[in-house]
Amino acid sequence: MALLFSPPLLLALVFLTAEVTLTTGSKKCAARNFGHDSVVCECNSTYCDSVGSVSLPPLGQYSSYLSSMAGSRLEPGQGQVQVNSSGAGLRLTVNSFQKYQKIRGFGGAMTDAAAINILSLSAAAQDQLLQQYFSSEGIGYSVVRVPMGSCDFSTRLYTYADTPEDYNLDNFTLAPEDINMKIPLLQRAQAFSPHPLSLLASAWSAPAWMKTNGVLIGKGSLKGHPGGKNHKTWAQYYIRFLEEYASYNLTFWALTTGNEPSAGRMTNYSFQALGFTPEEQRDWVALDLGPALHASSYPHTHVLLMDDVRLLLPYWAKVVLSDVHAGRYIHGVAVHWYMDRVVPADISLGVTHHLYPEYYLFGTEACAGWNPLDRGVKLGSWDRAEQYAHDIIEDLNQYVVGWTDWNLALDQTGGPNWVKNFVDSPVIVDAKRDVFYKQPSFYSMAHFSKFLLEGSQRVGVSPSRATELEYSAFIRPDGSVALIVLNRSPLVIQFEVWDPAVGYISSSAPAHSLLTLAWNTH
């Protein structure tokens, strides 16, 4: 579609896309404005902004990191902890004796589309992108979700066992997308990470010959019943996947029982889906998947049920986890963020946690730009960064132990996606210019992934009065405290933090900002 601009508007657009520099710690953001409410940071093969490795100041001081609609990107600051209150109208009291869940990690998905986009860059720019996500200089992602076979963010339809009636999986083979793209990139990501990455596998569809509808897409489930040959073969398919990846020295922390099982039952998805009711999933885990994993070389791989929207909770969890035979093989409940706005977190996540506290809750998929009314990529959208931060804080405050974004990287259209189901991503690649843009949502993720290391434990925070601020506090493994504060309002909000162990921190949250405060307690 051709767009016609008047000369003054053209001048304005030239100005908007001119490079500006914003301060962010060790390396500054090369900011570009594409006409939305904030900016992206442009990175190339030789330069990318970075806050660097974070080390906290000594006892009696605190560090702050600010990102905002106005253009701050993890902007570092430091200050003195005070002995006396500043008298601010709003006080957030950190109660380290109120202890809740421990963090597992944060990350994104290595889809076919993500791999295609990363590999469309020069080798040096690829390294730059992977370091931004996975290194200690970057934002410290520790979780990577890996689709088993194709999904909508593939360029074609395939599974690893497309030979009909191959119940022994004699012809099971990884796809070129795995061998040539995803596996090498996962190995490189692991090399940049200071810690072992937690890999998480999710399947979108079983092979067509095992399904009631005979195709990978739309409404369809496994033929027969749990305990039958199709269900047993589908369980073995998971084991074969783990074995094949292990041969490349990639082992999986967890797998889910299948992406969005309600889709293949209730909605006629235009892309890959496999339907399960909660009862079918319960019986498949109890009779097939659980025993197969237990008897394999991977008995310690975690199994996460559901992998779908929290609208289905607590009902789905009740059906599966109330069964002792299924429950013994399951470790957690995987949730997607879609439609979170219509389902309060406390009556879905909170109730599920209180019913089944021994099973953890884990966020496995989220993306902006999925809604038909607000579709695709918006370069520089701060509103979408706020949506991420709001959802993460809400989830963390309702016992979720980690939060996984969707595609690690997409192109400027929000693809490739074989059904044109285009969405947004924290990293958008422009292969023609050999650059990538770090969206505001990248920094939204960073405020959590960089500071809430695995093993960090959520603690209580209580406000002295009602406030528009959203917040969550954690004691990190080294005993230091991190407090994340989101201000979605158009006003600056002054506040102070009181940690009885150290004193008072006087602070303010700028309009439309995300702030991480961190301090040592000994």
TrEMBL record:
<dbReference type="GO" id="GO:0010605">
    <property type="term" value="P:negative regulation of macromolecule metabolic process"/>
</dbReference>
<dbReference type="GO" id="GO:0004348">
    <property type="term" value="F:glucosylceramidase activity"/>
</dbReference>
<dbReference type="InterPro" id="IPR033452">
    <property type="entry name" value="GH30_C"/>
</dbReference>
<dbReference type="GO" id="GO:0006680">
    <property type="term" value="P:glucosylceramide catabolic process"/>
</dbReference>
<dbReference type="GO" id="GO:0006914">
    <property type="term" value="P:autophagy"/>
</dbReference>
<comment type="pathway">
    <text>Steroid metabolism; cholesterol metabolism.</text>
</comment>
<keyword id="KW-0326">Glycosidase</keyword>
<dbReference type="GO" id="GO:0016241">
    <property type="term" value="P:regulation of macroautophagy"/>
</dbReference>
<comment type="pathway">
    <text>Sphingolipid metabolism.</text>
</comment>
<dbReference type="GO" id="GO:0032006">
    <property type="term" value="P:regulation of TOR signaling"/>
</dbReference>
<dbReference type="GO" id="GO:0042391">
    <property type="term" value="P:regulation of membrane potential"/>
</dbReference>
<keyword id="KW-0443">Lipid metabolism</keyword>
<dbReference type="GO" id="GO:0008203">
    <property type="term" value="P:cholesterol metabolic process"/>
</dbReference>
<dbReference type="Pfam" id="PF17189">
    <property type="entry name" value="Glyco_hydro_30C"/>
</dbReference>
<dbReference type="GO" id="GO:0007040">
    <property type="term" value="P:lysosome organization"/>
</dbReference>
<dbReference type="GO" id="GO:0030163">
    <property type="term" value="P:protein catabolic process"/>
</dbReference>
<dbReference type="InterPro" id="IPR001139">
    <property type="entry name" value="Glyco_hydro_30"/>
</dbReference>
<dbReference type="GO" id="GO:0046527">
    <property type="term" value="F:glucosyltransferase activity"/>
</dbReference>
<dbReference type="GO" id="GO:0042176">
    <property type="term" value="P:regulation of protein catabolic process"/>
</dbReference>
<dbReference type="Pfam" id="PF02055">
    <property type="entry name" value="Glyco_hydro_30"/>
</dbReference>
<protein>
    <recommendedName>
        <fullName>Glucosylceramidase</fullName>
        <ecNumber>3.2.1.45</ecNumber>
    </recommendedName>
</protein>
<dbReference type="GO" id="GO:0008422">
    <property type="term" value="F:beta-glucosidase activity"/>
</dbReference>
<dbReference type="InterPro" id="IPR017853">
    <property type="entry name" value="GH"/>
</dbReference>
<dbReference type="GO" id="GO:0005102">
    <property type="term" value="F:signaling receptor binding"/>
</dbReference>
<dbReference type="InterPro" id="IPR033453">
    <property type="entry name" value="Glyco_hydro_30_TIM-barrel"/>
</dbReference>
<feature type="domain" description="Glycosyl hydrolase family 30 TIM-barrel">
    <location>
        <begin position="103"/>
        <end position="452"/>
    </location>
</feature>
<dbReference type="GO" id="GO:0005765">
    <property type="term" value="C:lysosomal membrane"/>
</dbReference>
<keyword id="KW-0732">Signal</keyword>
<keyword id="KW-0746">Sphingolipid metabolism</keyword>
<dbReference type="GO" id="GO:0004336">
    <property type="term" value="F:galactosylceramidase activity"/>
</dbReference>
<feature type="domain" description="Glycosyl hydrolase family 30 beta sandwich">
    <location>
        <begin position="455"/>
        <end position="517"/>
    </location>
</feature>
<keyword id="KW-0378">Hydrolase</keyword>
<comment type="similarity">
    <text>Belongs to the glycosyl hydrolase 30 family.</text>
</comment>
<feature type="signal peptide">
    <location>
        <begin position="1"/>
        <end position="25"/>
    </location>
</feature>
